């Protein structure tokens, strides 16, 4: 079979292109990775041809919904002292174009050892060099684009924590 295909693709707000996005391919599939973006509707059609015949599909459409993009925008802590309680407060903002809807997610609080001092790596057999999950916290509410929430927890620090650490909150 020597059939070939031309694929035409364009945003709904644009004119039908003169040239196909893919021309003369023999493949029955094509990866559009990097060609489409969130929050847009697209139209497309395929031309199929060989030495004897030509066919053109109907013009079809698809939409790619807008997606949320969550960021931890601030982080405040009380002093971290081994064996004592520590208060952690953070903000999460939706910087995306889409709402989170009623999807549930978690915020994670990590204690990560600082294994680099200056420009050289420091590893001590007596010090834990693995990140440790301190707390998992369910999200506060659904977030529309631009909305945020603030959360606060108190965590008891282990008795045997020493050295330099990073506190990281992810959402």
General description of the model:
The chain is 0% helix and 48% strand. The chain has 171 residues and is mostly beta strands. Strands 1, 2, 3, 4 and 5 form a five-stranded antiparallel beta sheet that branches. A three-stranded antiparallel beta sheet has the order 6-7-12, with no helix packed on it. It has a three-stranded antiparallel beta sheet with strand order 11-8-13, with no helix packed on it. It is elongated and about 80 Å long.
Report a brief summary of the structure.
With 171 residues, the protein is mainly beta. 0% of the residues lie in helices and 48% in strands.
DSSP strand tally: 13
Distance between the termini: 51 Å
Count the helices. How many?
Answer: 0
Mean pLDDT: 88
Q: How are the secondary structure elements laid out?
A:
Elements: E1 4-11, E2 22-25, E3 40-49, E4 54-56, E5 60-64, E6 70-77, E7 85-94, E8 106-113, E9 116-117, E10 120-121, E11 132-138, E12 148-156, E13 165-170
Q: What keyword list fits this structure?
A:
171 residues, mainly beta, five-stranded antiparallel β-sheet
